[in-house]
């Protein structure tokens, strides 16, 4: 069994390092770099998602998806479009309907951030803003009943922007369960890696 971890906007694959280091089956976990899927200077959600889908189709073993924020959107998108393909799904701080106001605010913050921060992520400021704009029309609310694998929803107690969506997805996805991490904000993989690792291991051990 393989587990694919997908980071969020403003993160890179190394954002999972502390969480993975606390888990026993580290060799089965692959932390993808979402921005490595971009082609050329133009970037959009559709291009990133298409490349991610191609990657998943190349996997010959059973696998589960675990995504935070943008990564959660990509993981949910893939599961609803490929029934029977994914064995487990973990959505952390995710949304099924993109909050346009929040995305616009995020873009305003990105514009104020120094370029050096974006280089560390492997994507330029303009590209990240372009990617965020391309996500605004995404809406998977009516597709939640298509999720056919074991599902865990995780959200930080202080992640007010995403907690309502987490609770709604946990209610709408058949058999899904939810874990609210006390004292945490949005980036639970950075803020509470040990606790997240504990929750993930318990979920993965349930067959």
TrEMBL record:
<keyword id="KW-0378">Hydrolase</keyword>
<feature type="domain" description="AB hydrolase-1">
    <location>
        <begin position="4"/>
        <end position="198"/>
    </location>
</feature>
<dbReference type="GO" id="GO:0016787">
    <property type="term" value="F:hydrolase activity"/>
</dbReference>
<dbReference type="Pfam" id="PF12697">
    <property type="entry name" value="Abhydrolase_6"/>
</dbReference>
<dbReference type="InterPro" id="IPR029058">
    <property type="entry name" value="AB_hydrolase_fold"/>
</dbReference>
<protein>
    <submittedName>
        <fullName>Alpha/beta hydrolase</fullName>
    </submittedName>
</protein>
<dbReference type="InterPro" id="IPR000073">
    <property type="entry name" value="AB_hydrolase_1"/>
</dbReference>
